[in-house]
Amino acid sequence: MCMSIPLYVTNSQKKIREKGKKEKVKEICKMASILSSFTFLSIVVVLSVLIRPSSCDSEQLINKICIRSFDFQMCHRFFRNRVYSPSMDMKGLCYIVLGKSITLIESTHTVIQILKAREPDKDIRNRYQICESNYKVLTYQLENAASAFGRGDYRSMFFNISQCDGLVSDCEIAIGSQAAQKLIKRNMKAREWISMSLAASGFLNAGH
Q1: Helices (DSSP H) in 70-180: which residue ranges?
Q2: Residue 86 to residue 59: CA distance in whole angstroms
Q3: Which of 59-68, 102-111, 159-168 has the lowest mean pLDDT?
Q4: In this structure, what DSSP letter does residue 3 have?
Q5: Secondary structure of the chain: what % helix, strand, coil (to 5)?
Q6: Residues 82-87: contacts with CB within 8 Å, 24+ apart?
Q7: Residue 11 and which of 2, 50, 100, 148 are 20 to 30 A apart at CA?
């Protein structure tokens, strides 16, 4: 006849088992924490990769415009100070530079009118008159370009802007070195902004 041995667990054995369970729970939590951290880090890396190209694209577009301008450094500095979104496209860049060009041309036209009114020499006054007429046409051309831009007619916009540099050049030839330094400098700036507007509108017209 076999005696059955009663099975029972002592308090010390219970404590050992409980301790083992707690350690296993801690290990599981630790692994979960590591995996969640890894997942979060992966998401951050992926997002940074997705976001970064937009900034690079905007930078590349700015360089494409500025390399075709008269003053690369000035052009690049202008856009870097005024581009509010790193993902701004060519349309946004064109909008900015075209608006700046119109403002400069209109203010230069006013300056020429003042210089002509104050000039006592008739010959120089006549030279200013040529510049005044040319800048009036410039304002008209750029306003037409802006209207075409608003309609999405980039071909007409490009055509209107392409007529502008020659008008500034004719003014420079007419006044020579006899004009006020203020106008000579403004003519140089006008050609810079026109070259930037022409580059941006050319890319839009080409579908970039």
Answers
A1: 72-82, 90-118, 122-151, 154-162, 164-175
A2: 8
A3: 59-68
A4: P
A5: 85, 0, 15
A6: 83/58, 85/58, 86/54, 86/55, 86/58, 87/54, 87/55, 87/57, 87/58
A7: 2
AA identity, residue 33:
S
> Which residue type does 49 have?
V
Express each pLDDT in 116-160 by its tens digit: 999 999 999 999 999 999 999 999 999 999 999 999 999 999 999
Cβ atoms of 100 and 91 within 8 Å: the answer is no
Start-to-end Cα distance in the chain: 98
The correct answer on CATH 3.20.20.70 for the domain covering 63-205 is no
Task: Determine contact, residues 175/131, Cβ cutoff 8 Å.
Answer: yes
Helix axes 122-151, 164-175, angle to 10 degrees: 170
pLDDT digits (tens, 9 = 90+) for 24-33: 545 545 555 5
Provide the residue count of the chain: 208
Ordered by start, the domain boundaries in the chain are 63-205
Q: pTM of the entire structure?
A: 0.69
Task: Give me the torsion for CA of 184, 177, 141, 118, rounded to 10°.
Answer: 80
Angle among Cα 74, 170, 134 to the nearest 5 degrees reads 90
- Residue 28 tokens read as 């599981």
